Amino acid sequence: MLILDWKVPDLSGIDVLHWVREKHSHTIPVMFITSRSNEEDIVEALTAGADSYLIKPITPGELVTRVEALARRMYPVEIEGEQVLFKGYLFDPRTQVLTCDAKVIETTPKEFQLALLFFRHIDLPLSREQILEAVWSRDITIPSRTMDTHISRVRSKLQLIPKNGYRLAPLYRYGYRLAQVCT
Prior knowledge:
Layout: E1 2-4, E2 7-8, E3 11-12, H1 13-23, E4 30-34, H2 39-48, E5 52-55, H3 60-74, E6 84-86, E7 89-92, E8 97-100, E9 103-105, H4 109-120, E10 126-127, H5 128-136, H6 144-157, E11 166-171, E12 175-180
Parallel strand pairs: 1-4, 4-5
Antiparallel strand pairs: 2-3, 6-7, 7-8, 8-9, 10-12, 11-12
Helix pairs in contact: 4-5, 4-6
């Protein structure tokens, strides 16, 4: 995990973040801790690839709890054969079988991985780079429409629409987010 302040010697935290995202893995969790509290700064940091943004002053307990929460989201522990349940959707990573209300949903391996990724990061924005690394491996480049097509199929097959309590939506010039919505 990388923890940045807006002001670091010789350059800005945003410059460091851009360099990290360009030269290293997009899955390294990055948290900004800064006194800058205006909306434009928060949006700029999150758009640049920060995963969390805290405004000073913060307490040691809050910092530890937020670091642990970010680590849980970024590096979920998956026990071989353990099934994962999300409000009606049951994922079996060992067999890659997905069921909803005890009915099997036919998915390809990539669709299964995408669906599980979105549910494990529910209500969190995922960049196209994060999705690419998690599902297609970091060094593989795929056409942009390939990812969009797979995500569209996941949305359709799992019925991730507001009337069913979920919305899988694109985030302009960033990626996608699966959100739980009130019905």
